[in-house]
C-alpha cells in the first residue's frame, strides 16, 4: 500500500515510519504541509492508496487538505485517516464532513494505529478490486460493442418496430400476393443521406436504435396506410404500400424527417443527430405485375437507395420536383 503522511512535526514522521514499517508498510512518502502534499500528489506517477493527515499545520490545515483530496485530486474512495491532537467535536465533525475515513488522536496508541492502518489497507484493496473490475467491465463492454458492430451495408433487423420486417420476409410477402392484389401496390425507397457519417459517430447499439427510430418515423408518416417496411442496409428503407393510397412522396419524407427530428436524438458525444429522409425512388405496380416482378423492382430501388446514401456523406435537400401516385385514399396526416 502506497501511503502519503502529512504532518509538520518531523518527530511524528519518525514515529509513523517506525509504526508503519513494523506493520509491513514501507512505501510511505512524507510531507510537512498541505502545499507540499499537493505537490507530492501531482508529481507521483502512481496514485497513493491511503493518506494520514495532521489537522493543525502552517498554511492550509488537514481538513482543507482532506477536502481538496476528495474534490480536486480525484481521491474519492481512498482511506484518509486524520492523526491529530485536536479532539474537540468541531474538528471531528469538520474532518468527516470533508471526507475523512477515520480519526486518531495524539498521543496515539501504536497498536491501535497499526490496526487502523490495516483496516485502511483492506479498504484500499477493496477499492482497487472495484477499480480493476470496472476497467475489465469497460473492456468487456468495448469488446462486446465491437462484436455487435453493424456493417454499414448490411440490413438490420427491426424486431421491436410494428410493421417492420426482415428483407426476406418482405419479399415472401410480395410472393404471396396474386397479380390482382399487387395491382395498385406501391413500392417506395427512402434513404438517410448522412448515414455514413452517422454510422461512424455512433456505437453499435445507438446505430441500431437510430435505424429503429427512423423506421418508426416513416411508418408514422404513412399512418393508416397499412405499409410494411424493411431496412435494406446503408440507411435505405424499402416500403410496400397497399393499393388505394395516395401521397405526395416529398411530403411523406418531410413529415418522417420531422417525426425523427422531434425525438431529439443525440450521438455518443452529445451532439444532435440530423437525418432528413430523401425519397430514393418509387414504383406503382400494374395489373400484370407478378410477385417476382415486384421483388425485382424492390431490389433495384433498395440498391439505388444504398448507393445514393453511401455516396452522399452529408444530408442533402430535395429539389422541387414532386412524385405523386395512388388511386383512392388521400394522404393521412395526424
Please tell me about this protein's structure:
It is a single chain. It is built from eleven helices and twelve strands. The radius of gyration is 34 Å and the shape is rod-shaped. The chain is α/β, with parallel strands linked by helices and 334 residues long. The protein has two domains: 3-146, Response regulator (Rossmann fold, 3-Layer(aba) Sandwich); 164-325, Reverse transcriptase/Diguanylate cyclase domain (Alpha-Beta Plaits), CATH 3.30.70.270. It has helices at 10-22, 34-43, 62-71, 89-97, 110-147, 167-176, 179-182, 195-201, 204-221, 249-262, 291-311; strands at residues 3-6, 28-31, 50-53, 80-84, 102-105, 164-165, 186-191, 228-233, 236-241, 247-248, 278-284, 324-325. A five-stranded parallel beta sheet has the order 2-1-3-4-5, with helices on both faces. The chain has a five-stranded mixed beta sheet with strand order 6-8-9-7-11, sandwiched between helices. The two termini are 66 Å apart.
List the helices and strands and how they pair.
Elements: E1 3-6, H1 10-22, E2 28-31, H2 34-43, E3 50-53, H3 62-71, E4 80-84, H4 89-97, E5 102-105, H5 110-147, E6 164-165, H6 167-176, H7 179-182, E7 186-191, H8 195-201, H9 204-221, E8 228-233, E9 236-241, E10 247-248, H10 249-262, E11 278-284, H11 291-311, E12 324-325
Parallel strand pairs: 1-2, 1-3, 3-4, 4-5, 6-8
Antiparallel strand pairs: 7-9, 7-11, 8-9, 10-12
Helix pairs in contact: 3-4, 6-11, 9-10
Amino acid at each position: 500500500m502506497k501511503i502519503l503522511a502529512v504532518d509538520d512535526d518531523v518527530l511524528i514522521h519518525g514515529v509513523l515510519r517506525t509504526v508503519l514499517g513494523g506493520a509491513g508498510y514501507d512505501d510511505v512518502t512524507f510531507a510537512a504541509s498541505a502545499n507540499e502534499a499537493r505537490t507530492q500528489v501531482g508529481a507521483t506517477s502512481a496514485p497513493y492508496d491511503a493518506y494520514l493527515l495532521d489537522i493543525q499545520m502552517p498554511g492550509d490545515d488537514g481538513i482543507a487538505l482532506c477536502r481538496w483530496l476528495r474534490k480536486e485530486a480525484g481521491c474519492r474512495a481512498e482511506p484518509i485517516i486524520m492523526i491529530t491532537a485536536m479532539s474537540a467535536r468541531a474538528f471531528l465533525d469538520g474532518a468527516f464532513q470533508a471526507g475523512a475515513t477515520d480519526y486518531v488522536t495524539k498521543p496515539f496508541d501504536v497498536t491501535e494505529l497499526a490496526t487502523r492502518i490495516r483496516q485502511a489497507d483492506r479498504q484500499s484493496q477493496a477499492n482497487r478490486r472495484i477499480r480493476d473490475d470496472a476497467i475489465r467491465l469497460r473492456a468487456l463492454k468495448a469488446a462486446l460493442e465491437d462484436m455487435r458492430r453493424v456493417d454499414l451495408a448490411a440490413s438490420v433487423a427491426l424486431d421491436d418496430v410494428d410493421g417492420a420486417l426482415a428483407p426476406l420476409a418482405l419479399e415472401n410477402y410480395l410472393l404471396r400476393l396474386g397479380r390482382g392484389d399487387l395491382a395498385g401496390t406501391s413500392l417506395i425507397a427512402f434513404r438517410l443521406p448522412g448515414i455514413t457519417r452517422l454510422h461512424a459517430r455512433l456505437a453499435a447499439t445507438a446505430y441500431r436504435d437510430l435505424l429503429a427510430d427512423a423506421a418508426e418515423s416513416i411508418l408514422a408518416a404513412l399512418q393508416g396506410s397499412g405499409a410494411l417496411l424493411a431496412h435494406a442496409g446503408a440507411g435505405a428503407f424499402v416500403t410496400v404500400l397497399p393499393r388505394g393510397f395516395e401521397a405526395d412522396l416529398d411530403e411523406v419524407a418531410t413529415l418522417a424527417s420531422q417525426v425523427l427530428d422531434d425525438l431529439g436524438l443525440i450521438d455518443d458525444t452529445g451532439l444532435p443527430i440530423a437525418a432528413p429522409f430523401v425519397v430514393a425512388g418509387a414504383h406503382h405496380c400494374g395489373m400484370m405485375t407478378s410477385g417476382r416482378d415486384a421483388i425485382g423492382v424492390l431490389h433495384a430501388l433498395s440498391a439505388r437507395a444504398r448507393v445514393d446514401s453511401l455516396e452522399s456523406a452529408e444530408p442533402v435537400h430535395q429539389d422541387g420536383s414532386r412524385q405523386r401516385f395512388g388511386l383512392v385514399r388521400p394522404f393521412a396526416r395526424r
